[in-house]
Fold this sequence. Notes:
- The structure is a single chain.
- The chain is 35% helix and 18% strand.
- It folds into two domains: 4-217, Spore Coat Polysaccharide Biosynthesis Protein SpsA, Chain A, CATH 3.90.550.10; 231-304, no CATH class.
- Strands 1, 2, 3, 4, 5, 6, 7, 8, 9 and 10 form a ten-stranded mixed beta sheet that branches.
- It is of the alpha/beta class.
- Strand 6 (114-122) and strand 7 form a beta hairpin.
- Mean pLDDT is 92; it is low at 302-313.
- Helix 7 packs antiparallel against helix 8.
- The relative contact order is 0.13.
Amino acid sequence: MQRILAVIPLYNKEQTLDRTIKSVNSQTQSLDLLVVNDGSTDGSSTILESYKSNTFHVLTQKNAGVSAARNAGITYAIENDYTHVAFLDADDYWKPDHIKNISLLQASFPIAQVFATGYEILQFSKKPKKAVHTDLTLLDAQLLDNYFEYNYLNTILTSSNCCFDVRAFEIIGLFNTAYSHGEDTDLFIRAGIHCKIAFDPSSSVIIDRTSSNRSATKSIHQRKLFDLDAYEEQSQTVPGLKKYLDLNRFSLSLAYRLEYDIKNAAVFKQKLDMNNLSKKQIKLIDMSTTQLKALKRTQKILGKLGWYLRTGN
């Protein structure tokens, strides 16, 4: 019998927490929910106290970071005989059929260890925009061959749209607590290398990038970045992985350039294969900081009008 546990890592998300919890409670298929309160100091704890049921659980720990919080959720799931863990960030929320769609994937693709659905991103406009994926020609649920080749625009897996068979963690390990940025990408790389991944392109998750206190708003110098080089050897044999790593290096190079850190920007640029970049990306990585900042402002303005400047292929 399958038992799914939703895990929400929580640190100071009082503005969005209630919406997130309600989206889990509104699922058309029942499941249990665990909120791991990672030392919140705002009103989040008060919101948690207003929820009481046999399917709602709270773990409270000293602030140790999102990876430690998610790992605590995984450990709780294993110790309490749950078969699957579905992740959801406290900024984001699920549509009512999300877990139903996940369960259909599990039934259709029993050999898979990871399951995910399409999602929408709320960022520049009032209405969320559906995430677009590379070379995803089938609109039906499917088992993904060569997982990384679908990730060159938006990632297939996010920290709010995926569900793991708990046995997968015996193969790929847990979230790396040494990282404060890209810790989810690091885990998803391991999943992409070692696991079968089933994906339903229909959208059942909203990623809210407008909410406050997101880790992405922090300066890159305040982050402990995940190690892309750790997968360089495997990238020689895993289809699409080398390009996926290089696109992450491209993004990090731009991030350092935007903060006038030319030295670190050059380090990431030198490690990537320029053949893995589009013509647009090559132009961007050669731009000055002043040019990049002007383009970033333009992208924000266009995004509010419903237009998006894409940097991928």
